[in-house]
Design goal:
The chain is α/β, with parallel strands linked by helices and about 500 residues long. It has helices at about 10-20, 35-45, 45-50, 55-60, 65-75, 135-165, 170-200, 210-225, 245-260, 305-310, 325-335, 360-365, 390-400, 410-425, 445-455, 470-475, 490-500; strands at about 25, 30-35, 85-90, 100-105, 115-120, 205-210, 230-235, 240-245, 265-280, 290-300, 340-345, 350-360, 380-385, 405-410, 430-435, 460-465, 480-485. It has a 5-stranded antiparallel sheet. Strands 7-9-10-12-11 form a 5-stranded mixed sheet. Helix 7 packs across helix 9 (about 245-260), helix 8 (about 210-225) crosses helix 9 (about 245-260) and helix 14 (about 410-425) packs parallel to helix 15. The two termini are about 45 Å apart.
Length: about 500
């Protein structure tokens, strides 16, 4: 078994392909295990001197995103599953220069240690939100398709609710209309989560996914209307995969967008998927096992041979207005899912991208049987802090129907004051539900700090629509006892209250 200190040149070349020539390889503790000659030259220090440093001697501990990333690597497997690709801008402690960095979780074949590669990007201007930003352009292209789907979902919600309210339906049909409206709302929530993942990224939240459905949905969102055409060929027995659906949609969007940007005229995509078996010694570096292979081919001008080996490098772009982040981002996401991404092209005959994803394990395919959602009644006093009156109205009615007494606050400061008053009078609140983000005042994160300072035993629930926010992902680390993701149902709200108050 190799160690990080005994890497071969082909291992280092693979890392350079992922993050560029100027890179540092760290182990799960943040200790430097290898620094490339190009990175040492860029940092103006001898390699031996730099290899004695840890990641926080390069960058300060005040760089919270980097600190969170390093913590996430601790205790992970050598394949770094569940870790994220991210880029940002930092100030180097060695010479006080500002520049961009790209961090990629990296699994090296035969190395039984977690590691991550950090690549330096001297020109960090591409990290901002300039007019040519690739993600902004991608979202513009997505907007028409997404608006179309949201309008369809809203039509289903409003239409079914109006039928239920009309009094023209029997009680049985009224129940059917309400269920249809609820299903449409859940689909809208799923779409919102995909958009959040596209815009921000984050730690993969993996679940068993039908790749056939995901391919159709993601392609339709981006290519709906306009001058883009596509064909999808998927076998009926295509295996499921265990992935973060939002991040996988982002990969597909970035690859499709690359073809759109490269083609001055109309472009057609041919998308195919199949089940394959990978044996030991695979040239792509994949572990033996079953995979889903997806190919995305376009009829554009293709990729020149001299660029083909560099297209997955962060910030490498053949387009003057391009940031070069799209394909590098896709490469990092696929790698973090234990897969592989490659491309081939003949100039003048288009390009083909190949995605390989491990098939969901049998244990994952067999979804456990779960009981239908239950509504848990309760009792006690609940304080809701949210800046939206509509949330007060609907959450208040839900809680009152469940048996709770409810009070409200619009921002954190008033919530803290309200929490103190009943405590002094002998009628304290049993729990508080805090909105994480309040643009016009104190939000949930600051409020829980003040509440815990006054009452270390406070039982608080954080509420937000941003699933990938650090507080939502690690709510207990911030002092919360539970979390509820917006939008939520009566069953979901009753469950989190039941868990916090009675479990």
């Amino acid at each position: 078994m190799k160690t990080l200190k005994a890497l071969q040149q082909n291992d280092l070349d693979a890392v350079a392909l992922a993050v560029g020539e100027m890179f540092v390889l760290f182990d799960c503790t943040g200790k430097t295990r290898y620094i490339s000659e190009a990175a040492a030259h860029f940092l103006r220090k001898p390699q031996a001197e730099l290899e004695a440093l840890n990641v926080f001697q390069f960058f300060g501990v005040e760089d919270l995103e980097l600190e969170r990333c390093v913590k996430a690597f601790r205790g992970k497997s050598s394949k770094n599953e569940g870790l994220e690709w991210f880029s940002s801008r930092f100030r180097c402690k060695l010479d006080q220069r500002n520049f961009g960095i790209v961090v990629v979780p990296y699994g090296i074949e035969g190395v039984n240690e977690s590691c991550f590669a950090l690549g330096f990007v001297p020109d960090a201007t591409a990290l901002g939100c300039a007019p040519g930003d690739r993600r902004g352009y991608a979202l513009e292209l997505l907007a028409a398709g997404i608006a179309h789907d949201f309008n369809n979902l809203l039509t289903g919600i409003l239409g079914n609710l109006s039928l239920a309210r009309s009094g023209l339906e029997s009680s049985e049909k009224r129940e059917t209309s309400l269920l249809a409206a609820e299903k449409a709302a859940v689909r809208a929530q799923d779409l919102t989560l995909q958009l959040l993942s596209f815009s921000k990224g984050g730690t993969p939240v993996k679940e068993e996914v039908s790749m056939a459905e995901l391919l159709e949905e993601a392609t339709r969102f981006l290519l709906c209307g306009g001058k883009y055409a596509y064909d999808i060929s998927v076998p009926r027995d295509l295996a499921s995969v265990c992935v973060d659906a939002g991040q996988m949609s982002q990969v597909l969007n970035n690859i499709l967008l690359n073809g759109i940007e490269a083609s001055p005229g109309a472009v057609r995509f041919n998308i195919e998927a199949q089940n394959i078996r990978v044996d030991a010694g695979d040239s792509r570096g994949l572990s033996p096992g079953d995979y889903v292979h997806i190919s995305i081919a376009d009829n554009g001008p293709g990729i020149p041979e001299e660029h083909l080996s560099k297209i997955f490098h962060p910030y490498y772009s053949t387009k003057p207005e391009g940031s070069g982040l799209g394909l590098a981002n896709a490469y990092g996401i696929i790698s973090s899912h234990g897969g592989f991404l490659s491309a081939e092209s003949v100039p003048g005959q288009g390009a083909t991208f190949h995605i390989y994803l491990p098939v969901a394990q049998r244990a994952l395919r067999q979804k456990p049987l779960v009981d239908a959602p239950k509504v848990h009644s309760g009792h006690g006093r609940v304080l809701i802090m949210d800046d939206e009156s509509m949330i007060h109205q609907i959450a208040g009615e839900m809680l009152e129907n469940l048996g709770y007494d409810v009070d409200f606050a619009f921002e954190g400061e008033s919530a803290v004051q309200k929490y103190e008053s009943p405590a002094r009078s002998g009628k304290p609140y049993d729990t508080v539900i805090l909105d994480l983000t309040v643009p016009s005042g104190m939000g949930g994160r600051a409020a829980i700090e003040q509440l815990r300072a006054k009452d270390p035993q406070v039982r608080a629930i954080v509420s937000s629509g941003y699933l990938h926010d650090a507080v939502m992902e690690n709510y207990r680390d911030y002092g919360f006892s539970g979390r509820v993701l917006k939008p939520y149902t009566l069953e979901q709200l009753s469950q989190v209250l039941h868990d916090v108050l009675y479990n």
